[in-house]
Amino acid sequence: xxxxxxxxxxxxxxxxxxxxxxxxxxxxxxxxxxxxxxxxxxxxxxxxxxxxxxxxxxxxxxxxxxxxxxxxxxxxxxxxxxxxxxxxxxxxxxxxxxxxxxxxxxxxxxxxxxxxxxxxxxxxxxxxxxxxxxxxxxxxxxxxxxxxxxxxxxxxxxxxxxxxxxxxxxxxxxxxxxxxxxxxxx
Length: 186
Known about the structure:
Elements: E1 6-14, H1 27-30, H2 49-54, E2 58-62, H3 63-69, E3 82-85, E4 97-100, H4 103-113, E5 117-121, H5 123-131, E6 135-143, E7 163-170, E8 176-182
Parallel strand pairs: 1-5, 1-6, 2-3, 2-5, 3-4
Antiparallel strand pairs: 6-8, 7-8
């Protein structure tokens, strides 16, 4: 599928490749009760997320990701256009977002807005965009925990997605963050 934008991914995941438990729980990532606290970069920072976010024009996320973020007292994406892929959310229900009812509608909307680089977030949404060849780069932050099962954005794909390693950083708390470019992506 052709698009005027490139999709970029920035995900936190367990060492065994999951972004959430099967019930959607991510306390192992956010520092919930029994997790030993949130990951630590040793500098009180955000593991490069702020710099990543500064380099994107807009965000596209799935409904589950949006529903996790919606109740936050402080909207984390202030000043950035946020698009949500959902067949159940009502357009206009939240003035902070634009709702798209299908993948094709979302791509058309992002193209029409003239975005150049879009942050794609949420397991199913990342998978759909990877399958369509619309992801140009991935930053994967592996939290030092094994959770055994859960949700992954890297399920069955129509073809191999070849990656080129762009760099790896390690952090004081044990997180390892690798960035890859999708080979053949523009």
